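Issue 218. Parser rejects a valid record. Input:
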Amino acid sequence: MPHFMALAWMCKDDYVRGGFRMLSMLDASGRRTAAVALRHSAYLAPIGLAATALGITSGWFAGEQAGCAAGTAGGACRAQWPPQPAHAQPAAPATAPQPDNTAVASTRPRAD
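Output the parser choked on:
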């Protein structure tokens, strides 16, 4: 969810053009979107410990998951104070370049 909120903020103009209703549409400053990402990062934090305590995974998973949760929380904090779309990575182009088909040979036999 934190990653989705980051994409919602970075690509909010595309979502508006596509007609999708997103939290980022109502959030001019980006602080609310970043706060939601931070909240969901906090929700993800205890999952690794819980899975280890229940015997589902090893302790390695708890450590790796804690690192991932800390990374997403750090990104959400950095985005919240202050959110700056100018620092966001550019999104991929909406459409891939179309090949030039003018030089493609015809596969139909010629009627000579």
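Fixed in the parser; the record now loads. The two ends are 63 Å apart (CA to CA).
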